[in-house]
Amino acid sequence: MKCMIASLALALSALPAMADDVAGDFDYYVLALSWSPSWCSQTGDERGAEQCAVGRKIDFVVHGLWPQYERGWPENCRTDERDPSRRESQAMADIMGSGGLAWYQWQKHGRCTGLSAAGYYGTMRDAADLIAIPEVFVDLARDISLPPAVAEEAFIEANPSLGRDGVTVTCWGEALQEVRICLTRDLEPRDCAPDVRPDCTRDRILMEKVR
């Protein structure tokens, strides 16, 4: 038995190690826009998150800008770039809801872009600025229920350069979770890879009113 275990250990040691994700090695981005009222109901209210306070009038916030492979994605890459300061992260709260989320996104995704922290935050802001939020969702005054395809179509209508395979809608239970938009490394619209493309399968989703 000991000989068998030793032989197995030797065989395993001869196999190539699984390569870590390499910073800067990816194919495209996913810009994830989260519907803030849904997040607040699911998580934010319990945390006492500032973005959930009544009167803030927050609709979509940037969840993140995620580097992707054509299949799968890198995360938690090693990088020689320094981490952002608390001030730099907090400066992203206007589009992300909190500096804490910005910091988390840098750690998990930003390090894999090969950019500096300032470069990643700037690219995320540039990507968000490229996408117009449909007017019908801005300052939404009442809860509405709609098919996921209608939310997707609203984004395509507001952003004619987007294709149907370049936008996907995800849900959180019965509620709208996110609209995800696929962009090239140069922030041009592109089709999402098949693993990103599937939409929420519910017939209808809830969009709670803006607070």
TrEMBL record:
BP GO annotations: RNA catabolic process
Signal peptide: 1-19
Single GO MF annotation: RNA binding
InterPro entries in the cross-refs: RNase_T2-like (IPR001568), RNase_T2-like_sf (IPR036430), RNase_T2_His_AS_1 (IPR018188), RNase_T2_prok (IPR039378)
Keywords: Signal
PROSITE patterns registered for this protein in UniProt: RNASE_T2_1 (PS00530)
Presence of keyword Membrane: no
Family (UniProt): Belongs to the RNase T2 family.
Protein name: Ribonuclease T2
Organism: Paracoccus caeni
